[in-house]
Structure formats: structure tokens, C-alpha cells
Amino acid sequence: MLMPYLMLGYAAAALLLLVGVEVCSRAVPGLRGVRILRWAMISAVVGVLLLALRSHAPNWISILCANAAIYACILLIYWATAEALDARARFLPWGGGLILAALGGQAFYVYAHDNLLARVLISSTAMAIVAGATAALLFRYEEPVEEWAQSGWSLRAQTRALAWLQVANGLDHVARLVLSVVYPPASYVHMDVIQAGFTYVNMLLNVAASCGVIWLALSVHRRGLQKAAGTDGLTGLLNRRAFEEILARDLRRANRDGRTLPVLLLDIDHFKAVNDSLGHQAGDQVIQRVADALRDCMRPSDVLCRFGGEEFVMLLNGATLDQADEIARRLRTEIMLLTRLPGGLRLTASLGVATSRAGELPEELLKRCDEALYRSKRAGRNRVTVDGMLSAGMRGKPEELIPWRALSPSGTDSARPR
């Protein structure tokens, strides 16, 4: 089998991928990693074309420049993968040093001591290390909880599939390294079956890895679009549509597993007076401050949403009813302690907590939560109601629970809540 024909086939595949990368980048602007992948494909085309010139060009072109381009290609694929995931490419400087060392070894075994087997071992070792680094990057990737929570779209399947693909790529290089020692290659112009087989498999794996980067970039882009569609523009929290989808999903799981699922609904007291007295800009600032306070109190498993207007809802995954009560009372206290609000406001909030029942629908659970909230309102506000009953310690007069300062529509202070 002639190596030039195999290399020309590899170049054709890389060229087609380069065209695909260009099409994707133009059709979907802003894809992360695609710009770097473009240079990886250019390097691949240049490298394999130079390898195909082995018997027609000097060694510094057909060996050193060719291998430099191919090494650059695999390192750029690593970088493109990190860029697509918005992850730190920690291996990049080490990979650059590895490439320089490999090229130094190639030059030594071309000019100082011509040894084809040594060059094969150097190339296989270097490329196996880069493939391993790419696999490690993908395996270590920890998707931020808020990313998949707000988008409903996880990258776990993509990252795991591409990680195992890179493992296969690395094992291909290791196997080539071992078998090359056992069965040393005789010629690069007329390749033996072993070298031809490894070259062909490596071509397929690198093409698949490049396609995988495009897949990953498109998946990240899709997740970003879904996150944007499910995000409240003022607070950055989930919006109602996204929350209802997550609630329906988690409620199905809870019903299937025989668990209960607490939901907490919070409403800022007298918020209309803030807008009427200080304007909507001040009202927006209040909403943002409350959202920040609630976000700071979240557990990693909780899901927080701006439900509409001055209402917020929190899904308390894994919490018992008593724990949900404790969380609600802590949130009430945090809002009471907010300072430096527009107009020197002091805020309070009313909260309602309900926990799911077997076979209950999401809208039924939210309705009971809403009823609990309005029981807190009717009882004097600044209270917590849990499954229809006022929480312990919430049965005093409102003014005993907090030093109250609310704004009347005219902008003057009122001594009692309305």
C-alpha cells in the first residue's frame, strides 16, 4: 500500500471537515472553539500533504514540517475542545513544550542518527499524551449546576462520548508504539499492513474527534439559547416557563421514587407602594436585591425562580417539611435585614410552603403553595405558612416580628403594614 495515497485520502477528509467548519461558523456565528478547530483542520491538511511528499521533498519538509503540522493539529483539537466547554486549557503550555521536544527528537533521528523506528515511537508517544490530556479534560469537566438547571440541557452525554473517543485514540497510538517495537516498520513509502492499519484507524478517530468538537460547540450554543429563553432578564434567575418545566420533571421523579418535594413561594410585602412612591427603577432595584439575597441562601440542589412581579418561588429538592420551614424562616429574616435600599426602605416578605402529595400535578402543588402564601398575607404579612398552618414563631403581631417601615403612596412613612 502506498503511503501517498493514504495521506491524500486523509487530506481530503480534513479538507471536507474544514469546509464543514466554515459552514457551521457562518450559519451559527459565535460558536466557541470553531475558530481554533479551523486552524486544526488547516494544519491537518498541510501536514498530511507534506507527508505524502516523503520521497519527493527534502526531509526537513516531508518529515519535520509535516510532523510539526500534525502535532499542531492534535494540540489545537485539545484547545478547541477546552474553548468549546469554556474550560481552562491547562495542558496547552505543556503540550507546546511536548511538541517542541518531539520535533527535536525527530530532527535528531533524521540528521544525527537516521532511525525510522525511533521517529515512530516519538510520534506515537507525543500524540498518545495529547489524546490522554484531551480525554482528561472531558472527563474532568464539571457542568455548573445553574447551567443545566436553567437550560434543561446537559452536556454529560457529549463530553463522555468524546472522552472515550480520545481514550480510543490514545490506545491506538499506544498499540502502534508496542507493535512497532515488535514488528519494526521497514519503509514509509511502501507501508506494511500494521502501519497502514494504524494510520487508517488514526485518521478515522481524528476525523471523529473533529466532528465531535463541532457537535460539542453546537450543543453548548443550544444550551445557551435555551438558558436565555428560560432566564428572567432583570434578575438572571429562572423565569416561570423554565421553572414549571423543571418542577414537572422533578415532581415526576419524586412521585416515582415515593418522595415528597417542598416548594416555597415568596411575595414582597407592599411592593406596589414602592413602585408608586419611588418609581419603577427603584422597584427594579428592590427586586434585584431580593433576588441576590435569595440566591445567597440557596443550597446547590435548590432551584430558584422569579415567578412574576414581586413573587419568587424555590424548589427545595431533598428537603423535609421541617427543613423547608426552617429555610423559609431564614429567607424571611434575610429580607428583613436588607439595608441600603432605595429611599431607606425596610422590606418584609410573606411566604407559603407546600410539599407534594402522591400523584399530585405541578399546578395543584403550586396552587396549595399560593394558598399558603395568601394565608400569610391575611394573617398580617411578614409570616411563613407551611402546608396551611402558620409556622412556629409566626403567630405574633406583625410589629412584634420586625421594626416595620413601609412607604405610603405619597412617599411618607406609615407605622403599620397595609
Protein architecture, described:
- Pfam families: GGDEF.
- By secondary structure, this protein is α+β, with helices and mostly antiparallel strands.
- The chain folds into two domains: 3-229, Up-down Bundle (Rhopdopsin 7-helix transmembrane proteins); 240-410, Alpha-Beta Plaits (2-Layer Sandwich), CATH 3.30.70.270.
- The chain is 64% helix and 8% strand.
- The protein is built from 14 helices and eight strands.
- It has a six-stranded mixed beta sheet, with helices on both faces. Strands 7-8 form a two-stranded antiparallel ribbon.
- Helix 1 packs parallel to helix 8, helix 3 runs parallel beside helix 5 and helix 6 crosses helix 8.
- The termini are far apart.
Sequence-ordered SSE layout with sheet pairings:
Elements: H1 3-27, H2 34-52, H3 59-85, H4 92-112, H5 116-140, H6 145-151, H7 156-182, H8 193-229, H9 240-257, E1 262-268, H10 271-278, H11 280-297, E2 303-308, E3 311-315, H12 321-336, E4 349-355, H13 362-378, E5 384-386, E6 389-390, H14 398-401, E7 406-407, E8 413-414
Parallel strand pairs: 4-5
Antiparallel strand pairs: 1-3, 1-4, 2-3, 5-6, 7-8
